[in-house]
Design a protein that fits this description.
Distance between the termini: 8 Å
Radius of gyration: 16 Å
Largest sheet: 6 strands, antiparallel
Strand order of the largest sheet: 2-12-7-14-5-4
Number of helices: 3
Shape: globular
Structural class: alpha+beta
């Protein structure tokens, strides 16, 4: 783990912040392959994985739970907001080159339906898309804004790692700006 010096201009806006970190992707893929399906839901604890514990020590805003999300080709999650996470760091594992994550302009009084299996609120209203990107590197995500994620032509696999409960997106951005990661 270290600073990635071979990066183009990183995206940093009100929805995401791409992070200048270089993780051992082979180790992360191996962890995902071994862990996937061993949980009754999509959440796992970092304490079972020494490499993830090492990452958390280097980036102490990370929480203790992490998720694996696998989307089959051309499938994904519609417009939603996360129920228990204000922000997270998403890490691409495979199949993200043709995937799209979009953010939408939320508004007061949006109609939502809670999905307890996915721990999110599906947005029932039509919203205006404000920003879209392709997940290609570890990225801080603002989970409190309506967003969607879809795989492209191949299966999309990511780690989605929640932050400490006391931190939101903007607080995390400030901390990460000052961090030596």
């Amino acid at each position: 783990m270290g600073k990635d010096n071979n990066i183009a201009q990183l995206i940093d806006n009100e929805f995401i912040k791409e992070l200048p970190i270089d993780l051992n992707m082979a180790r992360l893929k191996d962890i995902v392959d071994k862990a996937y399906g061993s949980s009754t839901n999509h959440q796992y604890m970092i304490t079972d994985y020494p490499y993830l514990h090492k990452i958390q020590k280097a980036i102490p805003i990370l929480g203790w739970r992490w998720n694996i999300y696998k989307f089959q080709p051309n499938k994904g999650l519609g417009v939603h907001v996360d129920a228990r996470r204000r922000a997270c760091i998403n890490i691409p594992i495979s199949g993200t080159d043709t995937s799209v994550t979009s953010f939408y302009r939320g508004r007061n009084g949006m109609a939502t339906v809670y999905d307890p299996a996915k721990v999110l609120y599906n947005i029932q209203d039509q919203l205006e898309e404000a920003f879209r990107f392709t997940l290609r590197r570890p990225t801080l995500i603002r989970n409190t804004e309506p967003h969607s994620a879809y795989a492209g032509s191949e299966e999309r696999v990511i780690i989605s790692w929640g932050l400490r409960d006391d931190l939101g997106f903007f607080e995390a951005k400030e901390i990460l700006a000052d961090a030596q990661i």
